[in-house]
Amino acid sequence: MGQYLVLLIAAAILFVFILIISFFRRYKRCPSDRVLVVYGKVGKSGAVESRSAKCIHGGAAFIWPVIQDYSFLDLTPISIEINLTNALSKQNIRVDVPSRFTVGISTEPGIMTNAAERLLGLSQADISNLAKDIIFGQLRLVVATMDIEEINSNRDKFLAAVSSNVEQELKKIGLKLINVNVTDINDESGYIEALGKEAAAKAINDAKKSVAEKNRDGSIGEANAHQDQRVQVAAADATAVEGENTAKITIANSDSARREKEAEAERKAVAAEKVSEAKALEEAYAAEKTAEQVRAERDRASQTADIVVPAQVDKEKVEIAAEAIAEQTRRHAKGDADAIFMKMEAEAKGMFEILSKQAQGFDKLVKAAGGESNNAVMLMIADKLPELVKTQVDAIKNLKIDKITVWDNMNGGKDGNGPTSANFLSGMLGSIPPFEELFKMAGMELPDYLKGKKADADKSISDATEIVDDTPEEETEEAK
To answer: What is the pTM for the complete model shown?
Structure first.
């Protein structure tokens, strides 16, 4: 199924590609030396009539397949030689009018349509023959309406009449008259030749008469010229003498003015030289003054660069070093302060956590004791009792007694309550801080079941005494 779908898509793409290529090939461009004629279904020229063809010159058009087709009309000019013979003139004299006409397909919109309707498909030879027939007929018509003298002497009028008549007829088939050239006109009776001879004889006689008149005018002119020559030579001599005298006076005046102007110019030149020398000295002094000022400024700048600039650089170095040390000190101080702050903050957080945990523990302990604070204290004391007993024992554990000498007569102590050794041991035990005193110093009251009774205490003392009495004599003399 997938292969069929791929083949179908490929076929569709190929079809679209071929269709696009076909459309491109149907778009036709018209060259400048041709007329593109599109025929078939090309639209309507008016409300009812349909156009037979659409003519395009210097453009392009899309040729719809099936309903339209196209062809070209060649605009190449066609030269047609017309050898008209025995044409009857207005004077009933037959003349020969050899001429050459140049025609071509017209590019005017309406006339192009006539060419498409009547010349499409014809060769250049067919078009030339068709135009030749039309030109022959119109040329005979024009010759028949004019005299031979008019045709021979007024060629412009003849050519204008031929062009007007021929072009009107050529437009009907879509052609345009480009040029008309009539080479010569002859007649079979020799009338034009006789007119030529008459004109030639008249021209020769007019020329001879003109030569005689010119010779006469030449002799008269020659005599007048000699007379004028003598008069004008004498006048010229007088004028020349007068001119020479005037010229001499003018020369003398000119020499005087020249010498005067030379003296004035010399004076002005000397004065100008003195002024120029003074100005030169002034400018030299000003230049020296400017140079000295510049040199002083240079020396000042040099001293400034040698003394002020190094001092300023040293000052900036000291300032920068001081700023660097101050910045370093500030940063060290800030670092120490930050460290102390972080340490104190950490200790505070640790203390807070310890106290928070202790508070939580105390709260749970009170809850475990049923909400009674005294019972909670009892629980804490019971938990710490081994440590308290260990503390009391440690108070005399390291006590060193090198030697004890006892002189006891066993008669009783000071109060008569017992022997002296028993009193000694009782006093030693009494030096140990009792639990009750420890609790009182802490602001608490020792429970009654931990206080004990006096009889029990006395019993403990007596037991201790008996233990001492039972001790061997050697050990009582020296204990380590």
So the answer is: 0.39
